[in-house]
């Protein structure tokens, strides 16, 4: 059945501080989950071999950020839709590629999700031009489905977002307009969506495998991206592996809260 239209705009109080006027007034009336910009909880640290690491309450994965005025105009990746393990707790998770959001007030993104509602998994897919409302697709999504996704700056203030479920045999391409996008980051992410009350419990998705990740047509690893671990109050929720071949990695669930 089609996914419930639960993805309306809202953000945490912390996000509101980060985003300022980017949060629409309707957010207070619709406290439902949103894939939102990064909420970092630690500075980026540079370790051995120049590898960069950071911590976030809502993102886990890799982020390429701008250096020397680099602008990011495309990001692509493949992933396998993970299987949710549900309990009586309602939980949420999303898997996506996008531009912006790490250091800016917009995110141009598309991906898939699995939530647990009433002890049952709900699988679905979507695109989002934050701070605009997200849009769900009605096509079927099942665990084990192979996804390919891309976000491309296709002209002045124009973006093309493509999401394909290779297993189910459907694909969507949308062309959207967003003024003054910073183009300051590109990312491949597993996320715990947020509401005004804060980041939501993360669905136990086991592990999600990303591959063929590129930025500006080059392997993600060419941009020395930041490896981000999801954690709250020092407690890990999802861990990100090292990059393999410069373009593949996994994110493993650790805890819902």
From TrEMBL:
Q: Name one Pfam family in it.
A: Peptidase_A4
**Keyword annotations:** Signal
- Report what the protein is called: Peptidase A4 family protein
Q: Which organism is it from?
A: Kitasatospora kifunensis
Could you tell me which InterPro entries the record lists for this protein?
A: ConA-like_dom_sf, Peptidase_G1, Peptidase_G1_sf, TAT_signal
Residues annotated as signal peptide: 1-27
- Swiss-Prot/TrEMBL GO biological process terms: proteolysis
Would I find Amino-acid biosynthesis among this entry's keywords?
no
